[in-house]
Target: Argininosuccinate lyase
Amino acid sequence: MAKMWAGRFKKETDRLVNEFNASVSVDSRLYREDIEGSMAHAAMLEKQGIIPPEDGKNIRAGLREILKDMEAGKISLTPELYEDIHMANEQLLTERIGDGGKRLHTARSRNDQVALDMRLYVRKEILEIRRLVLEFMEVLCEKAKDHLETVMPGYTHLQRAQPITFAHHLMAYGNMLKRDVRRLEDCLEGMDEMPLGCGALAGTTYPIDREFAAEELGFSGVTDNSLDGVSDRDYCMELCACLSILMVHLSRLSEEIILWCSWEFKFVELDDAFSTGSSIMPQKKNPDVCELIRGKSGRVFGDLQTLLVMMKGLPLAYNKDMQEDKEAVFDAVDTVKICLQVFSPMFATMTVLPENMKAAAKRGFLNATDCADYLTKKGVPFRDAYKISGTLVAMCIEKGETLDSLPLETYREVCPVFEKDVYEAVDLMACVRERKSLGGPAPEEVARQLEKLLKFLREKKEAQS
Model:
């Protein structure tokens, strides 16, 4: 493998060092970004009169042909032939157009070149992941529309707590995902600066036009300090932080679906196409997709940790440690994308079992708070009402009753304030409908939440088109 930097050295690089140092097996993924950046750089060099017009045109034409051949799978990018994607493209270009290809690297370094490639890649992937999150949010909203009045238990400490609706539960995740979208957009805005022109660390003596190159590549501006431009990867860390939070949300929902699929809950059933079986137990229908998403969240958290530890002790400017950023970012992006791609159709085809949800809500004394509120509204201090309601629950457990079925005489034995209208107060659907406070589970209030989220999705879709 010929070295572009071989002039300083009198001995060949050790074979193991070559293998250890080469990154083309990883950074070959950046071939398109590297070529796009190189074409913009060549156009700028030509515009500024730094290279002859003929060389500029030949460089761009040669790079277009290399891109075409790479996408057709005609070029093998192996460590035996190339050190990294930057050297690969330059060597291929020089082989095709001759000495003009050697002018491409004028006024730039691999340090600002790779910084540019990574920003182009991160920008592209943020847009794609955002699209997938919005797609899943649409699926979530469609499911919620059908279950505005599907009563289910709401939980704290995994204990049945108060009655809500399935739509209300889904809107909680819808709002989490909404914040995930905004985090991704904030990351995109923060990294929208072009580092090309920073050189190795101290810019260049050539009369370059960085703003021109930034405009060619669709950046809103350029990095303001050459040291910073080549030596930080905070946008990579920020992306992985955003993806880690997103995976927390997907993992939590996956955990709930795993519970809901069990015979102990049986609130939902996954479609056969998104379930697996057992090699020995014929009755099994396993939620493996959810379990894998729950497990893969740890990979993304690890990718973030890799970047944080890699960067925390590096002096300015570029250090070879930073070569390790790519595998972490690539892995986090790939993991999140496949999780979202499989989650949307799995969730869309999931069957909800409303009767089972309602039965579980009835068995959990979820209306105990409403019983206490009933007394409070009749003038009983809340702490007294709380104790009375708790006493009634204990009696129900002892007698095998529920608050719905407990005789009025028993109610009145505990507290004479109770009247027949207590049964309206403890009816589960009535309990849900009365929770009209902003953000609550009343159907009309959840419908408002749903419309707000749908409006958010419409605005994002319009902005993308």
Q: What stands out?
A: Residues 110-145 form the longest helix (36 residues).
